[in-house]
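Researcher: For the annotation table, I need structure tokens for Sugar ABC transporter substrate-binding protein. Please keep the output clean. Sequence:
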Amino acid sequence: MNFRTLIGASALALTTALAAGGAQAQGVSVSISCGALGQELDICREGAEAWAEQTGNSVTVVSTPNSSTERLALYQQLLAAGAADIDVFQIDVIWPGILGEHFIDLAEHMDGQQDEHFPAIVENNTIDGRLVAMPWFTDAGLLYYRSDLLEKHGFEAPTTWQEMTDTARAVMEAERAEGNDQLWGYVFQGRAYEGLTCNALEWIDAHNGGSVVNPEGEVTVNNPQAIEALALAGTWIGDISPEGVLNYAEEEARGVFQSGNAVFMRNWPYVWALANAPDSPISGNVGVVALPKGGEEGKNTGTLGGWQLAVSRYSANPEVAADLVRYLTSYEEQKRRAIVGAYNPTIAGLYEDPEVLEAVPFFGDLYDTFVNAVARPSRPTGESYNRVSAEFWEASHNVLTGAATAEQALADLESSLNRMSRRGW
């Protein structure tokens, strides 16, 4: 099985190879997989094209599924087959331990550039002493809100999830009474996929309910704080959140919010540039803050996200592919991506760069949110993480749909994860 065989099944599309000046490809040709959330694909293509123009090589940009769950399944098929069609893989922060054996050690190719990046992410990407991926951009969940609507109705940005719930309902009901019957209070990623794991982990950690599995590998998810968090989320559906949110991923939530039909939204930093673009209906009326606390005793928390670049050990040109990674993860390119697309740098110095802060002011205000984000339990669960996450998002989805109470769902989840743990993560 090779890459081209998988294209039809995965709806994966290849773009035109990029070479210097658009001329006939020169030098070595390599390929890179890129996501397509918002401006992501275009910004990746621009960076790759700049590298090609500098080096005289050519690069093919491959668009992969936006769903991280679908993308991982595709990558696993390609790498298990030893396919050489993709040289540089864009991988999620939780995948180094799952896919690392298929990637080269980048440490010897970076000329020490890795030392500029957040040490925690570099450590995350180091498996058995090998730097299997370079940090490209980091993420944490954020709360977006309509600043004009909150001001109109006399509300401040909420500090707790209960306050968000109450404010969303009050503004929604007031606006609907004035004829804005399309407005909802809150949209988020409620589909049964990895995005719901991120959302549900934020709710639980904000209530001091832990991170599902603790760093020692013990299952901790069934506790009163976690139950309270999921129970509250279950009340949103059909009240402040539409039934359709149960099928929303990132772009569906953004579509509702950016069209002016939601008061609040949970999403990643990339949305900032799009929501404030000149053609956005809500441009200039968007605020962003840390996600709310679970209560006065809770904490602001966002799930650690972000993407890395790794070079396949099946690449025919690993040194050239590593040079592309070095360029794309550099200070200059991360600065460009931050200014153009609000992609969070993994280099601390960029959070003090005046041009970056002018383009994305909240990078400075929410710096602590990004560096102290809660990690999904991918390290303690290792190669079992996918199954752990799937069990967690299904349990959370059952609460949202009303198929189970929070107590039932988390008790069942605890039993299932404990059986998995006894067999060895």
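Researcher: And a one-line annotation?
Model: The chain has two domains: 3-140+305-371, 142-302+377-422.
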